Amino acid sequence: QVQLVESGGGLVQAGRSLRLSCAASGSIFSLNTMGWYRQAPGKQRELVATMHSRGITNYADSVKGRFTISRDNAKNTVYLQMNTLKPEDTAVYYCNMRSQLSDTTYWGQGTQVTVSS
Asked: Is the dihedral of CA 15, 7, 39, 69 positive or negative?
C-alpha cells in the first residue's frame, strides 16, 4: 500500500503564489509517475501536472508558464509551485501516484486552494 500526504494549500489573493507538497510512503516502486489533479465545484477532476521518476513532465495548457512540478525521488515527494494564481485556479488539488510496474494508482486526500479577487 501507498499513502500520500499533502500540504501547502490555503487562501491567497490573485497574482500570488503557493507551493504544494505531497510525500509518498509505503511500498513504492522506483518507476512511477507522481502529479497533481484538481477539481473545481461542479466540474470533473482534471490533470494539472505530472512528472515521471525519470524526469518527463506533462502540464495542462491552462497552467503552462505559471506552474512548475518537481520531484525529490529520495524523499518520494512531489511539489507544485503555483505562481500568478488566478481565481480560476480555485479547486481541491489531489496528489496522485501511479506505479509503472503494478499499474496501481493512489490518491491523496485533497487540499483546498482558494484564490480571491
From this structure: positive
C-alpha cell at 79: 511539489
Which residues have C-beta within 8 Å of that of residue 103, sequence separation ≥ 6? none
**How far apart, in whole angstroms, are the C-alpha atoms of residue 79 and residue 86?**
19
Reported as a single tens digit per residue, the pLDDT across 50-77 is 999 999 999 999 999 999 999 998 999 9
Smallest CA-to-CA distance from 113 within 81, 76, 68 is with: 81
Q: What is the largest CA-CA distance in the chain?
A: 44
**CA geometry: angle 19, 25, 29, nearest 5 deg:** 105
